[in-house]
């Protein structure tokens, strides 16, 4: 039987586009279905949606042949974690963990555009834009996908990479579990008097963390976690009033701000698919899991999903083979559940009752005083094997 493609990926965001590029680089026939139009090049002020790419994620993106725009990337070599009164503190250094740096911060739109630029030069990849799935049907050797433009695609494997509200996941009848943290994160892009930083820091408070993600030049992305009510009230402030609130609440190390560029907020929720696979189907990225963003690992674990799936597909004979899909689910569910547990623990330790916060402070003290444990933690967070020698 002839299929339209070996693999069809639904969702052309960062994770879906990265998987398409990696498989296309390997010469596989890929169809990429995206509800929106092809992304446009980033320009002007930096976008509010910023992500970190750790070592494994960067290696996966580079293996696809995509070229990231260096002028819109900011490498970081240190991660500083503490509570606001200084009673708990730990500094993680890339050098101490055997790495040159921990990774980069990059705008989501810059990464997505770079990946789509790569797709344009891969003849085995076909992009279907401005269309979305309306139905799907699995057979023993392939799966069919009907689109809202009247087209039907067939492939030996369908991949859902279409986000937390995945249409393909719902059409396949895969349910999710969810948890509401009753918290909201306010993202604020600012310009600072201080020059470009190579450290990302996070201060824990009883109402949620305050974080700084460095951007190129005199810029930074701030993340202010708080209750729904407090965050929504803060959203009503003028830029001048918000700047004053930041300078009086955030640690002094932030320095003086010269401008509030943009702001937005979103609720903090967790979501996990009951299963990652179906007949000739795999879920990756936010379609499979949404974790608390305080550790900045959401995109990374999505790219690790794509990396694992790509490796199994490239090495195998049949991309939709149940044995390969089962291996994918076993590997990724275990790793992702560990990340969910870790981010949940951080949230409850540092925003819970006082005894829990004291335990959180103690954990930072212990991490600071056990170098081997710090090295293992950071290599694991970077998607590397902490037990590998050499």
Walk me through what this model shows.
The model is unreliable at 355-362 and 385-390 (pLDDT under 50). This protein has 390 residues and is an alpha+beta fold. Helices cover 34% and strands 31% of the residues. The chain is built from 10 helices and 19 strands. The relative contact order is 0.17. It starts with a strand and ends in a 9-residue tail after the last helix. It has helices at residues 14-25, 55-63, 108-119, 167-171, 228-235, 239-249, 298-315, 322-351, 354-369, 371-381, and strands at residues 5-10, 30-34, 50-54, 73-76, 78-83, 89-93, 103-107, 125-129, 133-138, 143-147, 152-160, 176-192, 199-204, 210-215, 219-226, 257-273, 277-278, 281-283, 289-290. The strands form 3 sheets. Strands 1, 2, 8, 9, 10, 11, 17 and 18 form an 8-stranded mixed beta sheet that branches. The protein has an 8-stranded mixed beta sheet with strand order 6-5-13-14-15-12-16-19, sandwiched between helices. A 3-stranded antiparallel beta sheet has the order 3-7-4.
């Amino acid at each position: 039987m002839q299929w339209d493609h070996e693999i069809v990926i639904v969702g052309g965001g960062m994770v879906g586009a990265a998987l398409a590029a990696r498989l296309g680089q390997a010469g596989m026939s890929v169809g990429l279905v995206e509800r929106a139009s092809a992304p446009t090049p980033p320009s002007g002020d930096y976008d509010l949606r910023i992500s970190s790419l750790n070592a494994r994620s960067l290696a996966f993106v580079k293996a696809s042949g995509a070229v990231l725009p260096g002028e819109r990337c900011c490498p970081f070599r240190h991660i500083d974690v503490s509570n606001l009164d200084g009673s708990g503190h730990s500094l993680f250094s890339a050098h101490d963990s055997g790495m040159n740096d921990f990774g980069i911060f990059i705008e989501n739109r810059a990464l997505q555009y770079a990946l789509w630029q790569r797709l344009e030069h891969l003849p085995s990849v076909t992009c279907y834009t401005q269309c979305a799935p309306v139905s799907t049907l699995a057979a023993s050797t392939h799966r069919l996908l009907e689109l809202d433009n009247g087209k039907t695609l067939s492939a030996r494997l369908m991949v859902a990479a279409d986000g937390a509200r995945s249409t393909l996941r719902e059409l396949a009848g895969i349910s999710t579990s969810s948890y509401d943290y009753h918290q909201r994160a306010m993202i604020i892009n600012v310009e600072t008097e201080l020059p470009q930083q190579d450290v990302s820091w996070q201060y824990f408070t009883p109402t949620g963390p305050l974080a700084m993600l460095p951007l190129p030049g005199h810029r930074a992305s701030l993340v202010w976690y708080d209750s729904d009510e407090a965050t929504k009230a803060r959203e009503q402030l003028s830029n001048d009033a918000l700047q004053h609130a930041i300078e009086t609440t955030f640690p002094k190390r932030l320095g003086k701000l010269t401008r509030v560029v943009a702001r937005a907020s979103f609720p903090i929720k967790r979501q996990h698919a009951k299963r990652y696979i179906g007949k000739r189907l795999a879920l990756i990225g936010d379609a499979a899991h949404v974790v608390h963003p305080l550790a900045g690992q959401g995109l990374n674990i999505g790219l690790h999903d794509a990396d694992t799936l790509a490796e199994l597909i490239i090495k195998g004979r049949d991309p939709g083979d149940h044995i390969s899909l089962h291996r994918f689910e076993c590997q990724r569910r275990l790793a992702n559940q560990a990340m969910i547990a870790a981010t949940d623990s951080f949230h409850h330790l540092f925003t819970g009752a006082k005894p829990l916060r004291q335990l959180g402070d103690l954990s930072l003290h212990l991490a600071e005083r056990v170098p081997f444990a710090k090295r293992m933690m950071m290599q694991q967070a970077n998607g590397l094997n902490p037990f590998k020698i050499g």
